[in-house]
């Protein structure tokens, strides 16, 4: 009988150290009994080796469990389309809850849904083990289109970890990651087609309108020439977003900012007095100077901005060439020469104060952007430039949508009374009556007020 038929272990499949020991034993074998004894010893040695390897593997897996922190299906709610926290929030249809968790009211969420759902429902979710051109099985997905959009907005509007998102939406880690990546790509695509989400440089007529709005609060920043208003039409500033370390040493060096001693991504954003973004440059390396990042905006100022209009910046923001310097104004720098004439000095100081006051709107805009989309406060992925660009573009487009449709914006809230006066106080008062009429009717404090009525 062949050895391989009687015993499952083949000499050629055993480890070297076992074969070496077996060969040493086999050299001294001279009888049939000794041969059988030899084969038995080989089997014992193989069993010992395999058993030891399996025990070591089990111990290694047990040690790894302590460091692998993730949730499995039995740790979560059974049905993602059932009674999950997200389903409770969505079916509650409460504006306050939507604004708190996703940054948008129900009406604006539905506008996004009208664009998002067709793409979600007609495209397969990318996976390595499926064909890219396959037919999507909508009924087999853990989330419908509303759930996928809600997942993405929860992610962008917060700094919560993916474990928390798994609990809210009842998704295992792999599914959550695939859904989130796919939904971010869809949201980036569809927001580019929504008119209210677009970023557009203002026309000359819009610049004049913006100047009038600013001039109502800052009269020194407006000049009237032949019945046309000229002056400040917006504010501009740089924004540095935290970025993770890069695997590539050259890109790591490019994103490192020596002034901040950290890795950052540079952006430059300009805001109108209505709170929306009129120009931006995103996703520049952190080592770049703001003057280099702002080159596309400089070009718009040179070629598409009539003389007499300018943006307001802080003293640290570069104003470029002399031609650009006339279209970007900032408060007085420390050490700047002051005029000796008292009248000129008072006018200059008054201009400085109002430039400084309006410059604050750029800070409000930056805080509103990062406050609305708190994901930007988390370190960005330094190794995927395309994904980082998509994330930033999606956030600024959603910021436009939130400002224009939801109306939650500090710049807008400060300058909105000026729009009301310009567009007709009666219309605005009537609108407020329609929206808040029920609240005013139930007001139990107003009866203690004395109201003067003109006869």
Automatic annotation (TrEMBL):
One annotated GO molecular function is: metal ion binding
Task: Return the InterPro entries for the record.
Answer: HARBI1_dom (IPR027806)
Query: What name has this protein been given in UniProt?
Result: Unplaced genomic scaffold SPHSTscaffold_415, whole genome shotgun sequence
Q: DDE Tnp4 domain location, by residue?
A: 238-399
Cofactor(s) named in the record: a divalent metal cation
Whether Manganese counts among this entry's keywords is no
Q: Which UniProt keywords apply?
A: Metal-binding
Q: Which Pfam families match?
A: DDE_Tnp_4
**Which organism does this record belong to?**
Sphaerobolus stellatus (strain SS14)
